[in-house]
Amino acid sequence: MDAGAGPVKALHDLRVLILGFTAGVLFTQTLADLPALFTLALAAIPVLIPWRGRLLYAAAVLGVLYSVLRAQPFLDQRWPAGRHGGDLTTQGTIASLPERGADSVRFMFVPTDETLPRRVRVSWYRDFQPVRGGECWQLTLRMRTPHGSMNPGSFDYEGWLFQQGIGATASVREAVRCESSHGNPILRMRQHIADRLQAWVPEPKSRALLAALTIGDRSGFSDDDWDAFRLTGTTHLVAISGFNIGIAAAASFFLLRWLWSLVPRLCLWIPAQRVALLGSALVAFAYALLAGFEPPVQRAVVMLWVILAAAWTYRLAEASRVLALAWLAVLLLDPFATLSAGTWLSFGAVAVIFYVALGRRESPGFWLAALKVQLALAVALIPLSLYFFHGTSLIAPLVNLVAVPLFAVLTPLALGSLLLSLVFPASAWVLLMPVSIALQKVSGTLLVPLSYPELWFAASPMPYALGLGLIGIALLFTPRGLPLKPLGVLCLLPLFSPVDRAPKQGFELTALDVGQGLAIVVRTSNHSLLFDAGPAFDAGFDAGESVVVPYLLSQGVTRLDRMMISHTDLDHRGGAPAVRRLMTVGDEMGALAGEPCRQGQSWEWDGVHFEVLNGPMPGLSINNGGCVLKIESPEYSALLPADIEKKAEQRLLQEMPERLRADVLIAPHHGSKTSSTEAFVQAVNPAVVIYAAGWRNHFKHPRPEVVARYAELESLQYVTGNVGALTVRADLSVDQYRLEAARFWNSVAEMFD
């Protein structure tokens, strides 16, 4: 026998080829620009040459090619940056259940004009009218190019828009309802059910859970609800995905098998198990349609169908092959499903369930087996939870031991009660009352941990730590007696002890990209300071939660030594509560502390001097009374003047002109025309100027006249909204995150000429 036949055969294994295809897909997602077809043709040449790894290489090239072919049409239909902020009038359909806030409503809009993006995420503020899923509207929209903040460790909003197929965002200027009533019938049915639930279930908490479990409508959940789900590790139970689809399929399988077995003649015709498999597949698909058939639901259905097909052909014991085929089916459906944490968590969970349930010969009994599965899931998914969610719940394993079987019962009961209520509306109150009461009790119980934020362990491991952690989990789950098994614990340690990226000397300053707002992180070798925390909006973007804390955790910071809020404007203090909630803050200074800033306050950390040059005074506006902080080290100095304007600048020039000189300046008031007076600019004479301003913001910050003043001094100028987070190093070099971390779906960085 040929000695090389073994390795060659291994390379031909379908699982290995799927791994190669996956590598190609993942490689494409690391690129800043999609490769041209000519480049791909050159890359494919080795496929034509006979060599041992040719098939594996071909699978990888195919993964790249497939990703490019799927991505390019979407990029072509995105709203162009040159038309950002322009208005247009178009007709289309409300393509989602509206998400209603206190003073706004958001929905997906599908224009009838095929030259426009296929899906537009629309926000309607102030005097919005009632809208319903499936309705036709003629809207005048202010169109915006997909664009989001870019910071280390934070959520990639542009990547999410890309994955969802959203080619533009927009706000409503004018609106007229169309006469046409033609719309997606399934969406109109979901909207009808949502309206019925509003009338049938008066208690908001139970109604929100009932709507989430049945039609996938999560708009009824508050920020506190989501915090409770995070702290208890139960988000996966209320966001319809693999768990809910699997529960619906399992319940229908056992019910159909029992019903079919009641008639022996039917079993002679078709075995009850096969009828149950087919029926559960159809029920799962119907449930997915009822839940909106969003990408996570689609992936769950595809995975379930592959598993059911394996059961139909008696191949369920070949778990690795079944999972590989399911993975391939998901990637063929959407190669960018790998951008979603849910994809990795779903497959990870199924792999663990297969390993625990099918990988052991003994039969410990149902409840003991369920306990083993739940405990295995709690341990095995820790690395992915830490990596994707910047932390993990310390009580999730215990809570899920109760919550999983509880929701496994409540989900089919909620579905059955709702469907019966639709058939017999007069009995809806009686049918839904028991489920509503149970869900109300569950909701109240899940809110209890909100009083104990310490139940959340915050950490954000590096990719290498994730890789080691996954290897560690694999070693821990190997059979008893394996000599390398104890190394699994050692491999997990980097997950819980992140590398601190503090500078060895001096200080580093990072201006985070929080849109139109300010959040500055200053780090010395042993201390960290947060100067302002960015904006936060009701039921919307919270810079503290979405940007500041993820960034700090990604840098190995789990405790802030000081948080300093310059003044009370929302774009500076909005994220502060989230920072307090999600991580330890040593002490606070400024507008939200017991004592405001005072001129002359100073301290020293690790050889770096900090001094407050300005604070609230009688007769000064909120902006002019804001904290101004000067930071000095042997390497360079920085001035953080928050939102001071001409009056405060003049006072500082009169009282301490020599203290204003700085190498790095955070431009006052985002570069507005009311600040950065010529005398102030000359006194500071910065080498680097950073404008903390949103991309193409409606204030038009920074103003051209301000930019011109700094340009005369030949200062290097940057806008956070244009280039992402900016980090100034000890040698005055500036890292621009949008340039460093951009992917092909991200907007390009915009530089000063």
Characterise this structure.
The chain has 753 residues and is α+β, with helices and mostly antiparallel strands. Helix content is 47%, strand content 15%. The strands form 4 sheets. The protein has a 7-stranded mixed sheet. It has a 7-stranded mixed sheet with strand order 14-15-16-17-18-19-20. It starts with a helix and ends in a 12-residue tail after the last helix.
Instruction: Quickly count the helices.
Output: 29
Strand order of the largest sheet: 13-12-11-10-9-21-22
Low confidence ranges = none
Q: Tell me the number of strands.
A: 22
- Strand proportion, as a percent range, falls in 5-15%
The value of Rg in angstroms is 29 Å
Shape: globular
Terminal residue distance: 68 Å
The helix content, as a percent range, equals: 40-55%
Largest sheet: 7 strands, mixed
- Backbone structural class: alpha+beta
Mean of the pLDDT scores?
91
Topology diagram in text:
Blueprint: H1 5-12, H2 14-28, H3 37-43, H4 54-77, E1 87-94, E2 99-100, E3 104-111, E4 120-125, E5 136-144, H5 157-163, E6 168-177, H6 185-200, H7 204-215, H8 223-232, H9 235-238, H10 242-261, H11 264-269, H12 272-290, H13 295-312, H14 319-333, H15 341-358, H16 366-380, H17 382-389, E7 391-393, H18 396-423, H19 428-447, E8 456-458, H20 463-476, H21 487-496, E9 508-511, E10 520-523, E11 528-531, H22 543-554, E12 559-565, H23 570-573, H24 576-582, E13 584-590, E14 602-605, E15 608-614, E16 628-632, E17 637-640, H25 646-655, E18 664-666, H26 678-684, E19 688-691, H27 704-712, E20 716-719, H28 720-723, E21 726-728, E22 734-736, H29 737-741
Parallel strand pairs: 4-6, 11-12, 12-13, 17-18, 18-19, 19-20
Antiparallel strand pairs: 1-3, 1-5, 2-3, 3-4, 5-6, 7-8, 9-10, 9-21, 10-11, 14-15, 15-16, 16-17, 21-22
